[in-house]
């Protein structure tokens, strides 16, 4: 959904050879980016945070189902699972709308085809939101990593308890499946952490070290985008019978 909403705006900017603020003017002041740029910044922030929150819900479910199966069976229902998606989306939308209300400043970045929250320069009103955003992302990364590491530990223990070589094929099959999940969780955890850290680091460097570097900011956003592109393919490939 994020790619489908954001990509046409970027392609239109290149097609017309105009910046986002020129394509969608209407800012309240001369220095304020246009309405389209503000919308783009909101969508970038939202689709960076919302999938991360959903990944945390998935990691928590995996950890509870493996490590606390009785609690999981008793308290986690389909209705709760169905409600988590809209609830996470609503909370992220309210949080990411704060710059539109004055806490944080949307900013057009070079070459004018993308916008995000200003991560360097300005006072507490401008830099408070990116620090809060990066802090929340950092907490989510740590929580997801901890849940996935614990899940991998449980999977490894389950695999070790399975019969060794020479056992009937039916008894040996679960061992291979658990190791598949173990490798998948490990890869997704490393990929997610590597792709998320550059944005967190850039936000703190811009706020506390006054490091204004738009190329570095662009690289951090590209890393964050890579995660949402590669993660589904890693999951799809590891779930195929060909891989097994």
Automatic annotation (TrEMBL):
Example GO molecular function: prostaglandin D receptor activity
Location of the G-protein coupled receptors family 1 profile domain: 1-235
Keyword terms: Cell membrane, G-protein coupled receptor, Glycoprotein, Membrane, Receptor, Transducer, Transmembrane, Transmembrane helix
InterPro entries linked to this entry: GPCR_Rhodpsn (IPR000276), GPCR_Rhodpsn_7TM (IPR017452), Prostanoid_rcpt (IPR008365), Prostglndn_IP_rcpt (IPR000370)
Coiled coil: none
Entry-linked Pfam families: 7tm_1
GO cellular component terms listed in the entry, alphabetical order: plasma membrane
Gene3D superfamilies the record matches: Rhodopsin 7-helix transmembrane proteins
Gene from which this protein is expressed: Ptgdr
Statement: the UniProt record of this protein carries the keyword Lyase: no
Organism: Piprites chloris
Transmembrane parts of this sequence: 39-60, 80-101, 131-151, 182-201, 221-238
Name of the protein described by the UniProt record: PD2R protein
């Amino acid at each position: 959904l994020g790619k489908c909403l954001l990509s046409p705006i970027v392609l239109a900017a290149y097609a017309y050879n105009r910046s986002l603020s020129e394509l969608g003017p209407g800012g309240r002041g001369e220095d304020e980016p246009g309405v389209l740029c503000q919308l783009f910044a909101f969508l970038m922030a939202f689709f960076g945070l919302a999938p991360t929150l959903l990944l945390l819900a998935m990691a928590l479910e995996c950890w509870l189902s493996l490590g606390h199966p009785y609690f999981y069976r008793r308290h986690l229902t389909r209705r709760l699972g169905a409600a988590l998606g809209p609830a996470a989306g609503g909370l992220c939308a309210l949080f990411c709308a704060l710059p539109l209300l004055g806490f944080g400043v949307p900013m057009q970045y070079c070459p004018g085809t993308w916008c995000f929250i200003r991560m360097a320069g300005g006072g507490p009103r401008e830099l408070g939101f990116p620090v809060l955003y990066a802090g929340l992302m950092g907490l989510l990364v740590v929580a997801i990593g901890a849940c996935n590491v614990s899940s991998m530990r449980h999977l490894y223990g389950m695999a070790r308890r399975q019969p060794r070589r020479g056992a009937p094929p039916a008894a040996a099959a679960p061992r291979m499946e658990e190791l598949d999940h173990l490798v998948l969780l490990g890869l997704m955890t490393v990929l997610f952490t590597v792709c998320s850290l550059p944005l967190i680091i850039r936000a703190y460097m811009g706020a506390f070290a006054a490091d204004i570097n738009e190329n570095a900011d662009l690289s951090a956003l590209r890393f964050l985008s890579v995660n949402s592109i590669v993660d589904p393919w890693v999951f799809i490939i590891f779930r195929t019978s060909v891989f097994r």
